[in-house]
Amino acid sequence: MKQSNKQYWKGIEQLTNSHEVVKNAEREFPEFLPINENGESGGSSRRDFLKLMGFGIAAVSLAACEAPVRKAIPYLNKPVDVDPGVANYYASTYSLGGNYCSIVVKTREGRPIKIEGNKLSNITKGGTNAQVEASVLSLYDKERLTGPKAKGADIDWVALDKEVISKLEAIAAKGGQIRIVSNSILSPTTKKVIADFKAKYPTTEHVTYDADSVSAMVEANSQSFGQAVIPSYNFDKAQTIVSFAADFLGTWISPIEFTKQYAVNKKLGKDKKTMSRHYQFESNLSLSGSNADYRTPVKASELGLAVAHLYNALAAKAGLATVSVKAGSFKNLDKAANDLWNNKGKSLVVAGTNDVSVQVLVNAINSLLDNYSSTINLAQAVNYRQGNDKQMAQLVADAKAGKVDGVIFYNCNPVYDHASGTELAAALAKVGFKLSTSDRMDETASLADFVAPDHHFLESWNDAEPKVGSYSLGQPTISPIFKTRQAQASFLVWAGGSDDYYNYLRNNWKSTVFSKQTSLMDFNTFWDKTLYDGVIELGAPSAASVAFAGDVAAAAASLSAKTDNGPELVIYQKVGIGTGNQANNPWLQEMPDPISKATWDNYLTISQAMATEMGITFVESNTSLVNLKVGGKSVTLPVLVQPGQANGTVGLAMGYGREKAGRVANGVGVNAYPFLTSANGFVSFEITSGVSIEATGEKYQVPQTQTHQTYMKRQNIVQESVLSEYVKDASAGRFHPHVMGYDGEKKPSEISLWSGHTYSNHHWGLVVDLNSCTGCSACTIACQAENNVPVVGRQEVLNRREMHWIRIDRYYSSDADANDVKGLEIAAENPEVVFQPMMCQHCNNAPCETVCPVAATTHSSEGLNQMTYNRCIGTRYCANNCPYKVRRFNWFKYHDNEKFAAVNVAMNDDLGKMVLNPDVTVRSRGVMEKCSLCVQRIQAGKLTAKKEGRRTNDDDVTTACASACPADALIFGDMNDANSKISKFLRLEEKEDKKVVKEERAFHMLEEINVNPNVFYLTKIRNKDLQENNV
Amino acid sequence: MQVVSSVREPLITGGKSVADVTQDICKQVEGKPTKSWFAALTVSLMVLAFGTFCLLTTWWEGIGVWGLNKTVGWAWDITNFVWWVGIGHAGTLISAILLLFRQRWRMSINRAAEAMTIFAVLCAATFILAHMGRPWLFHWALPLPNTFGSLWVNFNSPLVWDVFAISTYLTVSLVFWYIGLIPDFATIRDRAKGKIAKIAYGALSMGWTGGAKTWSRYEAVALILAGLSTPLVLSVHTIVSMDFATSVIPGWHTTIFPPYFVAGAIFSGFAMVQTLLLITRKVFKLENYITIFHIELMNIVIIITGSIVGIAYITEFFIAWYSGVPAEQYAFLNRMFGPYWWAYWSMMTCNVISPQLFWSKKIRTSIAASFILSIIVNIGMWFERFVIIVTSLHRDFVPSSWAMFSPTLYDIGDYMFSFGLFFTLFLLFAKFFPVINMAEVKSIVKSTSTKD
Questions:
Q1: Which residue stretches of B98-211 are H helix?
Q2: What Gene3D superfamilies is this protein classified in (chain A) (predicted)?
Q3: Cβ contact (<8 Å) for B70 and A873?
Q4: Cα–Cα distance between A153 and A155 in angstroms, integer?
Q5: Interface of B with A in 231-270 (CB under 8 A)
Q6: B324 in contact with A at a CB cutoff of 8 Å?
Q7: Which of A105, A426, A773, B2 has its CA 20 to 30 A from that of A534?
Q8: Could B140 and A852 be called an inter-chain contact, meaning their C-beta atoms sit closer than 8 Å?
Q9: 3 state DSSP class of B407
Q10: Which residues on chain A are in Cβ contact (under 8 Å) with B69?
C-alpha cells in the first residue's frame, strides 16, 4: 500500500499549531485540574503535602481498623411464631436428678433466655429456685458434647447405633446382664421407653439411685404402711412443723413446692394474724433451720435419739407405750411435743436422715398425731426420689464380680456422685460394654466406650409425673444446638424402633393421660391445651389415715450409736450447687450460699468452740486449711466457722471437687462423695465415727460476699418482733426514728430539702416481706439471667466485687449488749437468722442522683432511679453515697475479656452469649450499674397494655426477682393503681399529695436519713415466746 | 523609705548587697547542674517512669487493678487527690494573703511555694483523671455544648464544683506565678551568654524593660491577682470538703468540714514548703535568704493550723456523741478502735501531737527537727484523708456490706507517679527558674539588712 501523507488533526488548535496544544500534547489531562493548586509550575506545595498526608493517614488508619463482621442473617422465610424483638413463651418442665419444676421458657428470636415458674402448676405454683433459673445457661455450655463419641473419638449416629446394637445383641445372645443406671426418672414415657428396651433385651435391669438419696424413707414407709413410696407433704396445712435435719426449704425432695406451702403460713396481714411454728433439730445450719422459730443444734449421732424422745413424749400424752432409749436432753423438744399434741392433725414431722429406724419413728409420730389424714398424703405418692440404695450397691457388687456385661448410664454420673464411685470406676474395667448419655465427658462418661449425648432439656420433648395424678409436658424451645440426640430416641433406636420420640410421647399420652381425663374429647385439642398449659392435674385421692404397722421398739433399739469421741461429719447440699450436676454453671458457682455467703468453694463448717479448740480463727473470710480424715480417705480443705453448727459436728457440702465437669467447675472445692458411708444398705450422709480433723496451719481465703455477720442490733436495718406482740399491736417491732428540731421532735420525712416528685402516671414500688423470705436466692439468679449480670469469678469475689443486683443479706443475732460495739460483731453460738433481700431502693430523695457530676443517674417520672450507662464516667461517687451499698461498678471489662472467659461464659463465649437478654445492655468497663426494677419488663408491660388500650395492671409487669420467688416474698406493682396488689397490701392512702402507708409492718430501711425509698420492707415476726432472745 | 526598727532581725543575712542577690540566685540558673541535682533528677525520673507504667496499666486494664471494692469506692485515689490539693494551698496563701498583709518575710519563699502549688495541683489533677472509670470521657464533666441535646452537667454535684474550683485555682496560680517570674526572667536574659538561654529567657520575659511604668503595672497586677487568689485559698478546699460534707455517709456528713479542711490544707502546705525549702536552701546554699527566722515563722503557722486541725478532730467526736445519731457515733468509734485504728492513731500522732513540739523554741529553730516534723505532718495529713475516706466508707450503714480495703501495687504505683511528676517538675524548676524572687528580695535587702 502506498504510504499516505495525509495528516489528520484533532482540531483546529492542532492545525494552527498553537502554543497551548504543543505544550499539553503529552499530558493526560490538558485542562487545569484542581489537584495541583499551584497551577502550571508543577510540584506540590507544602499545603498539598499536608493535605495529602492528612488524607493518607486518615485513610490508612481507617483501613487498618477492620470493621467487625456482624453475622446478622435475616430470615429468608420468617417463622410464623417468631417476631424479632417479641418474646415467645413456652410451657415446659424442668426435671433434673428428680428435682421438678413446672416452667415457662422465654425465648427471643428462637433462643431460650429466661426461665419463669409456671403459675398453672398446682405443685410449684409459679415458684422456681436458683438451680431452675440457672439451667438456661447450662444449655449454652460450650463444654457439652457436640456429637456422639466412641472410645473418645467422634462417630456419627448411624455408626454408633450399629455398633451399640451389635454389642447389645451380642450380650443378649449370650444371656449377659445389661443394666440401665439412672437418677430418678419423673417421665412415665421414658419409663415406657426403658420397658421397650427391656423387652428387646430381657436381661436388662433398670437401676435407679439418687446422689441425695432418701431411699431409707421409702423403705420405712414400706415397713410402716406397706407402701414403698414417698408421700406428698402439705406444709401449708401444718400449724406445727418439726424437722429433724430435713432441709425442706433448701434441698429436701421438693423445695420449691414446700417453700410455696410453707410461705402460706408465714403471711401476715390485717385479716390474718396466725402463723405456723417451726422447730428444727439439726447439726448444720440449713436454710430451713435458719427460718425456724426454734432451732436446736443436735449432733448427728443424737438425732435419732431426739426423734425417739419426741416419740416417747407424744406416746406418753397419747397413753401409748413408750420405747426404751438412752437418756438425753434436747432443748425445745418438750415444747415441740406440746405444740404437736395441741395441733394434732395440723402438724408435720419430717426427718432428712437416710436411716430407716429414724424414718420409722417419724412415721410413728406422724401416725400418732393423725397427720396422715391431713398434712401427709400417702395416696398421692411423689416420684421425685426413686433411688434404691440397695439396688445400686448390688450393681457395684455385680460389676466388681464381673457379672455385668453391659451398662448404660442414662444421664447420671455415679462415678462422681455415688458413695461407691471409686469402686464403680475400677469395676467398670470388667464391664464389656459401657455407654453414657451424658451431655459432657464427665467422670462416668469418660470411662464409657460410647457416649450418646442427650439433648439439654430445653431441646427435648419430655413429660413428667411428679406425683400421682399430676402430669406435665416438656417441649423443645430451640432446635438442638449440637448433633446430640434425645436419649429416649436413642433407647428406641437401640430397641429396634424409630427415633421419633415425639410421636411416641404423643401416643403414650393418648393411651394414658388422655384416657384418664374427661374434660376434652379430642386428643389434638387436649394435647395442644396441655402443651400450652404445661401441666394437667387429674387429681389424686385425698389424704386418708392409714394404719401404722411399723415396729417402733425395734426401730428405737436399732438407732445407730456413736462409737468414738471424734467429730462427726455431716454431708449436706448447698442450695445453689446441690448434688453438683449443674456444677459447670458459673451462675450457681457464684451464687452466695444463703447461709455462709460463700461462693466458688466448699469448706468444712465448724462451730466456734471447735475452732477455738483447734486454734483456728476466721476473720474477714481468712481461714486455715485442715486435713479431714475419714477412714482411710483424707482431704485438705478450708474451714468456715459456722454459728449454729452443733458442736462436735462438722459439715461438708457435696457437689464440689468436680474433675471432668468443665472449666468452670473443675478443681473448685473438694469432693465429699467418697466420704459417704453405707449403713444397713443405705447411703449414710452422717459419718459419726472415724472422723479426724487436723489443722495444717496453712492460710486460705474463702470467697464470701458478706464478711460481717450481725446487724449490730441496728433497728433501722432489721425490724422484728414476735407473733404474740404482733397480735396485740400490728406495728410491733417497728422502729420510729425522730429528728430533734428547734421546734421539737419530728418524723424524718417531715424535714426535707427536697420538694419531692410527682408521679402523674405510674409509681412503681416493691414490698419485701422479711417474714416470708427464706433466703433461697432464686431471685439473685433470676435477676442475673434477666439483667445480664456478669460473673466475676473467685478472685474478684475475694476482692469484694461481685456484681449481683439483688443480694440477700443474712444476719445472725448477737448475744452481746446493745452498747458493746465490739461484742455485737460476734454472732451468737446458735443465732437467730434473718434474711434481707437488698436491691436498689429507688429512693425518691436519692443520694446518688445529686452527686453524679454528669447526671448519669436520674429519677424517672415513674419513681425509678435510672442509670444511664453510656453517660457514666465512673467517678463512683454515687456508690459511695449510696447508704444501701447496692451499686455495682464495672471494675474491668467483663465481656469479651480473656481474663474472665473461664467464668463469665455468658459474655465471652459465642455460644454463651446466646443467653443474654437482648433488651438489656451489656455494660462496659468503667460504668456503674444497679437494679433497674426490670425497667425493660415495665416498658414491655406498658406496651402490652397500650396495645390493648387499657391501663397497665399487675399481670402485665413484675420484676424477675418477684416472679422467681417461691415464697412470694416480693410484691411489685404500681402504687398509683388503687387496684394493684401492692397498693392493697400497703393500704396506700393519698393525703395532701403524699402517699400514706397504712400497713403497720411496712418500713423503710434507714428511715432516719429520709431518702424515702420506693422499696418497703415488712417486719419479721417470729412465732416464738417473748423473752426468749435466743432459741 | 520605710522606717525599720533597729532591733528587728534582718530578713536577709550575710550583708548581702543587691548585686549579691542577683549573683547568688542567677548562678544556679547559669551554672552547670550539680551532681546532686542530676542524681535527684535521675531518681525522680525513675520513679516517674515506674509510676507512668502503673498509671498506664490502670488506664488500660481498668481501675479494678486497684484495691477498691463494692463498699470502698474511693481510697488512695481521692486520698492522694485531696492531699495534693491541700499541699497546693500554701503557695497561694503565702503569695496572696501574706502579700496583702504585707508580710515581707514571704519574699524569700513565695516563688518556690507557688511553684510547689502548681505542681501539686497538677498531681492532684492526675488523680481526678485516674479515678474515673472512663477517663477518656473526662470532658463530660465540663459544661460543654454537645450534640446530645440538652445534656448538661449536674450542677448539684460537688464533683462539678470541684472541677470549677480546681481549674480556677490552677489558672490563677499559674498566672500569678508567671507574672512574678517576668522581672527575674528579664534579669537572667540580660545576663545570659548562650544563644539558647538568650532566646528562651528573652521569650519568657516577654519584653520586660524595667521601666518605672512597667514596675507600677507589675505591682498593680500582683495586687489584683492577690485579691483574686485570696478567696480561692478558702474556696478550693471548702469545695473539696463538700465532696464529703454533702453526702449522707456517717463520718462524711458533717458541717465542720470546710474550715477543718482549709486549716488542714494550710497545715500540710506549709509543711511541704518547709520540706522543700530546707532542701533547696541547703543544696543551693541560700542560707542567707531563707533564714532560721523564715523557718521559725513557718513552724509557727504549722503549730497554729495543726492546733486548729486538732480541735476539729475533737469537735467531730463531741458532735458525734452530742448528735445522738447511732450511725455517726459508730463511725467515730470505728475510726478509733475499728480495724483501721492504726491509721487513725497515726493521724492523731502526726497531726495533733507532733506539731505541739514546736512550742519549744529550740525545736522550732532546729533545722533537723523542722525537716523531720514537716515530713511527719504530711504523712499525718495523708492519713487524715485516708481515715476520712476509707474508714467512713468501709463500715457505713449496712453491716452486710462492710469490707476492708487494702492497696495493690497499682495504688502505690499511681501514688508514686505523682511523686515522680512532682519532683521532676520541681527539680527542673529549681534548675532553670530563679528559685527566689530576686526583684522582691532586692527591695528588702537594704531596708531590713542595714541599720542606717
A1: 98-100, 110-130, 158-191, 195-204
A2: 2.40.40.20, 3.30.70.20, 3.40.50.740, ADC-like domains, Formate dehydrogenase/DMSO reductase
A3: no
A4: 6
A5: 243, 246-249
A6: yes
A7: A773
A8: no
A9: coil
A10: 799-801
C-alpha cell at position A333: 423438744
Cell of A651: 459439715
User: Nearest-CA neighbor of A990 among A971, A1003, A972, A975?
Assistant: A975
In angstroms, the Cα distances linking B359 to B62, B271, B307, B351, B365 are 48, 16, 11, 14, 10
- pTM score, two decimals? 0.91
Domain locations in chain A as residue ranges? 12-64, 220-375, 565-701, 720-1022
d(CA A435, CA A412) in angstroms, rounded, equals 11
Q: In angstroms, what CA-CA distances link A657 with A281, A603, A637, A671, B52?
A: 29, 11, 11, 4, 42
Q: How far apart are CA A258 and CA A348, in angstroms?
A: 12
Report residue A540 as a C-alpha cell. 389424686
> Cβ A877–B73 below 8 Å, yes or no?
yes
Task: Report d(CA A87, CA A786) in Å as an integer.
Answer: 13
CA distance B252 to chain A (A): 10
Q: Closest Cα to residue A491, out of A182, A78, A29, A946?
A: A182
C-alpha cell at B246: 454533702
Cα–Cα distance for residue pair A3/A401, rounded to 1 Å: 111
Q: How many CB atoms lie within 10 A of CB B185?
A: 22
Contact A838 B248 (CB under 8 A): no
Enter the ipTM. 0.93
Run of H or E including B240: helix B212-245
Residue by residue, DSSP assigns B48-87 as: HHHHHHHHHHHHHH-GGGSS--SS---SHHHHHHHHHHHH
One-character DSSP codes across B384-395: HHHIIIIIHHHT
Distance CA A1007, CA A50 (A): 65
Indicate which of B248, B391, B410 best probes the interface with A, i.e. most A CBs within 10 Å of its own CB.
Answer: B248
CA A195/CA A382 separation, integer angstroms: 20
Residue in A476, A466, A422, A472 with CA at minimum distance from that of residue A444 = A422
Q: Which residue has the cell 468540714?
A: B257
Nearest CA in chain B to A818: B326
A102: phi then psi, degrees, rounded to nearest 5: -85, 130
Architecture of domain A720-1022: 2-Layer Sandwich (3.30)
**Probe site for chain B from A814, A822, A857, A880 (most B CB atoms < 10 A):** A880
Q: How far is CA A666 from CA A284, A601, A660, A670, A742, in A?
A: 26, 11, 6, 10, 64
CATH class of domain segment(s) A565-701: mainly beta
CATH of A220-375, one of 3.40.228.10, 3.40.30.10, 3.30.420.40, 1.10.10.10: 3.40.228.10
List chain B pLDDT tens, one digit each, 452 residues: 444 455 556 677 767 777 888 888 888 888 888 888 899 999 999 999 999 999 999 999 999 999 999 999 999 999 999 999 999 887 788 778 777 777 777 787 888 888 999 999 999 999 999 999 999 999 999 988 888 777 889 999 999 999 999 999 999 999 999 999 999 999 999 988 889 989 999 999 998 988 899 999 998 998 898 888 888 888 899 999 999 999 999 999 999 999 999 999 999 998 998 998 898 888 888 888 888 888 998 899 999 999 999 999 999 999 999 988 889 999 999 999 999 999 999 999 999 999 999 999 999 999 999 999 999 999 999 999 999 999 999 999 999 999 999 999 999 999 999 999 999 999 999 889 988 888 888 877 766 555 44
| Structural domains in chain B, sorted by start | 18-449 (1.20.1630.10)
Interface with chain B: mutation pick from A597, A709, A799, A928, highest number of B CBs within 10 Å: A799
* Residues of chain A found within 8 Å of residue B248, distances taken between Cβ atoms: 847, 881, 883, 1009, 1011
